[in-house]
Amino acid sequence: QVQLVESGGGLVQAGGSLRVSCAASGLTFSSYVVGWFRQAPGKEREFVAAIRWSSSGTYYSDSVKGRFTISRDNAKNTVYLQMNSLKPEDTAVYYCTADARQSTSALNYYNSEWWGYWGQGTQVTVSS
Hints:
This protein is an all-beta fold. The protein has no helices and eleven strands. Strands 2, 4, 5, 6, 9, 10 and 11 form a seven-stranded mixed sheet that branches. It has a four-stranded antiparallel sheet with strand order 1-3-8-7, with no helix packed on it. It is globular and about 40 Å long.
């Protein structure tokens, strides 16, 4: 079955950087669109970034654009989220997600209900 396993979370000071990774198994990773969402305590899960199967398109929420970079290594079945200039408001559990559909509308990527597979999440805490 499909498994997504996040790693790399931790505690970092504001202004610092962190890279989280997501290792996928049980799927033809190179043909899946993959993404990241996050959820802070008491808040809804929110879209962070997504990348199409061939890295031909990347998408970001306005809150992370210019600070975060999503990338993928299809040979390693892994997707990364490089997070720079971190802020306390970036504190959340970060979830990896994947889906086999290549949506013609990128708007779907922003909707957590569209995605088919989810990891268990990794905690990122940014101290002020």
